[in-house]
Specification:
The protein has 146 residues and is α/β, with parallel strands linked by helices. The chain has one domain (26-145): Nucleoside Triphosphate Pyrophosphohydrolase (Alpha-Beta Complex). It is 23% helix and 40% strand. The protein starts with 9 loop residues before the first strand and ends with a helix.
């Protein structure tokens, strides 16, 4: 089923004079037993685990792969929480990205221990510190549904 990306929330603003590259991506919202959320710390800030979809990957397989690469965790990917677009300017690359993101509820598989760049953060702090606005939006969507 084709997604109508014009009907989802859009975060960020477009920069004039740059080409836009559409970048399909998928992210996981993972909570532990005490309600903390798994985030990834990078040089650019805090993000939900996930990233770009490669080749013929599904959204679920991409988010599983990315979480394993970033946090050394295996995920059981659950239901779709929502979709959003994040406009990301990359002037140093001479382009901008329209990140068409799908956000999934997920849980850590019990046989794998967290490591890598992942850390657990209380939801109020994650809502304050996650860098992409779309990631904060997705966390609020899941929070309001529970």
């Amino acid at each position: 089923m084709a997604v109508d990306w014009s009907a989802v929330p859009v975060f960020g603003s477009r920069a004039a004079g740059f080409p836009y590259v559409i970048r399909p991506s998928a992210y996981a919202i993972v909570r532990n037993r005490v309600g903390a959320v798994l985030v990834v710390r990078t040089q650019r800030g805090l993000f939900l685990p996930g990233g770009g979809i490669e080749g013929a990957e599904t959204s679920a397989s991409a988010v599983s792969r990315e979480a394993n690469e970033e946090c050394a965790v295996g995920l059981q990917v659950g239901p779709l929480v929502g979709r959003a677009v994040e406009i990301v300017s990359a002037p140093d690359e001479g382009t901008c990205f329209e990140k068409r993101s799908e956000f999934f509820e997920a849980s850590v598989l019990p046989s794998v221990n967290a490591a890598g760049n992942g850390l657990w953060m209380a939801v109020p702090e994650a809502l304050r510190d996650l860098r992409p606005e779309s990631h904060r939006w997705a966390l609020r969507q899941l929070r309001s549904a529970t």
